[in-house]
């Protein structure tokens, strides 16, 4: 991978993957890039300790996004990056996880290239990889899963998509941004042929303080998300590999509570 980290060269943008949250999961190259920053344009969930790796005089600009409420629309973020680069600044676009995994990094690269400006991408540990590792949940396993798929749970037209074959025996499905649509996701998967008793894990705030790893069955996904008051950021993992994880069995716990209440 070629490097654009020569501090004497001005006017460029570096898209940096900040990983799933824990600063210890930053790559060496990401740390090197942050130390060259004049401007850091960052997502909302970036740990302050990561931002502190930039020089004290570097300008820090939050473009935090939440469901249905963005600080800036994507087009404005693109324009902001380009405007700062044109002043000769080294702009670090700091993104949670990996810039090219549901991070809209591709759109930002296109915008910078269209402006005729240099850009580099430094990959990061994706949320799926970091959260699964923390929960001891292997996304692939010789005996249980030889394929893994990644999908976005907030995409439009969910009911019109064909998810057949993405989850089931010998396959793992990882769903980003699926907390708000967990019930619809479960219904969609079962309608497309996934068994209601397929194991499912919800990994909330993975690698961050207050992280939780919970498992249940597909038919119970929506109810579990509701009764456990799961909040974003969280990913959903569907597949037999869930049984190998350290995630707490929330279906069994709920069943025991219900049984005790009825006694």
Verbal overview:
A hairpin with a 7-residue loop joins strand 10 and strand 11. The radius of gyration is 20 Å and the shape is elongated. A 6-stranded mixed beta sheet has the order 8-9-12-10-11-13, with helices on both faces. A 5-stranded parallel beta sheet has the order 3-2-6-1-7, with helices on both faces. A two-stranded antiparallel ribbon has the order 4-5. It has 8 helices and 13 strands. The chain has 2 domains: 114 residues, 3-Layer(aba) Sandwich (Cobalt-precorrin-4 Transmethylase, domain 1); 128 residues, Methyltransferase, Cobalt-precorrin-4 Transmethylase, Domain 2. Helix 3 crosses helix 4. The longest helix has 13 residues. It starts with 11 loop residues before the first strand and ends with a helix. By secondary structure, it is α/β, with parallel strands linked by helices. The model has no long low-confidence stretch (mean pLDDT 90). GO terms for molecular function: uroporphyrin-III C-methyltransferase activity. It is an enzyme of class 2 (transferase). Keywords: Cobalamin biosynthesis, Methyltransferase, Porphyrin biosynthesis, S-adenosyl-L-methionine, Transferase.
Give me some keywords for this one.
Methyltransferase, Cobalt-precorrin-4 Transmethylase, Domain 2; 8 helices; 263 residues; five-stranded parallel sheet; transferase; single chain; six-stranded mixed sheet; Cobalt-precorrin-4 Transmethylase, domain 1; 4pyrrole_Mease_sub1; uroporphyrin-III C-methyltransferase activity; alpha/beta; cobalamin biosynthesis
């Amino acid at each position: 991978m070629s490097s654009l980290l020569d501090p004497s060269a001005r006017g460029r943008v570096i898209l940096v993957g900040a990983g799933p949250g824990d600063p210890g999961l930053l790559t060496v190259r990401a740390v090197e890039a942050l130390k060259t920053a004049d401007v850091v344009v960052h997502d909302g969930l970036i740990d302050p300790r990561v931002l502190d790796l930039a020089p004290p005089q570097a300008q820090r600009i939050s473009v935090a996004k939440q469901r249905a409420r963005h600080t800036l629309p994507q087009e404005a973020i693109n324009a902001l990056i380009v405007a700062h680069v044109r002043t000769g600044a080294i702009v670090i676009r700091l993104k949670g996880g990996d810039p090219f995994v549901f991070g809209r990094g591709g759109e930002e690269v296109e915008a910078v290239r269209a402006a005729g400006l240099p850009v580099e991408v430094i990959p990061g540990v994706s949320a799926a990889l970091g959260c699964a590792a923390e929960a001891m949940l292997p996304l692939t396993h010789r005996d249980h899963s030889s394929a893994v798929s990644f999908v976005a749970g907030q995409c439009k037209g969910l009911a019109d998509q064909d998810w057949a074959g993405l989850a089931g025996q010998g396959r793992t499905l990882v769903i980003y941004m699926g907390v708000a649509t967990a019930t619809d996701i479960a219904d969609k998967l079962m309608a497309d042929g996934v068994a209601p008793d397929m194991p499912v894990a919800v990994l909330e705030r993975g690698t961050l303080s207050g992280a939780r790893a919970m498992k249940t069955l597909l038919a119970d996904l929506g109810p579990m998300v509701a009764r456990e008051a799961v909040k974003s950021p969280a990913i959903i993992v569907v597949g037999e590999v869930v049984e190998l994880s350290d995630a707490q069995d929330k279906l069994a716990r709920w069943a025991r509570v219900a049984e005790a209440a009825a006694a």
